[in-house]
Amino acid sequence: MACGSGKKGSSKGAFNSTTAVVLVDSPPAGKVRIIDLGDLQIYNRDTASVTATLSVNGLTWDAPTISTVVNWVNDAKLTLRSDETLKGVLGGAVATNQPNYFCSFEDYDAPK
Question: Which of 40, 48, 86, 104 has the smallest set of CB atoms within 10 Å of its CB?
Fold first, then answer.
């Protein structure tokens, strides 16, 4: 795990139904991006509940069913290397409004 303080950043946007979107882009070359999954927020503005699936390089996991706002209840930290992104996709089409997301992260020097 990274030591010291890193450069903080954040990512926000909206899902796109059953088309995967990049929630957090890859870090710059020579850096790793640490995401505290407890800081990942998904806000469902739609009238129906949705299920989101998150993935990094083919490894996937499901978020809880989202009726309004979900803070990812997980103390885990996710590390992205320069060739990895965190993506999200919904389990089905929404009725009217795409859910929004917000995620904060920190960039650190990559281990040598």
Answer: 48
